[in-house]
Amino acid sequence: MSHPPSSPPGIIPPRSDLPAGPVLWVHSTHTRAVLQTLLHRHPAPMHGYDLSKATDLKSGTLYPILKRLHEQGHLNADWEASPHPGKPPRHIYTLTASGISLARETPEWATKGIKGVLI
Question: Is-cis flag, bond preceding 14, omega within 30?
């Protein structure tokens, strides 16, 4: 009687009950909050400070998310001159077409109770 070979120690064999194909990437609650907030305000741009207030995210959490979404092509990040003389320009953020699609893929249950997210 022949038995299938067992996996080497530390290696988990693939599960046959999962569908084949690409794995859906699930974004963090914080990333979903940023996406949903930008989608709600689209096409109007938002400053990082406004996003921070709308989502209740601190800058150390928010700006890495914005940077990653921009690098992945989901956000436009443009410079805007400050309305206050002597102040540096600020980034304004808007969703790209792929960012809009990504934000719309977020299920409603995934953002319930997140400050600033209006669905």
Answer: no
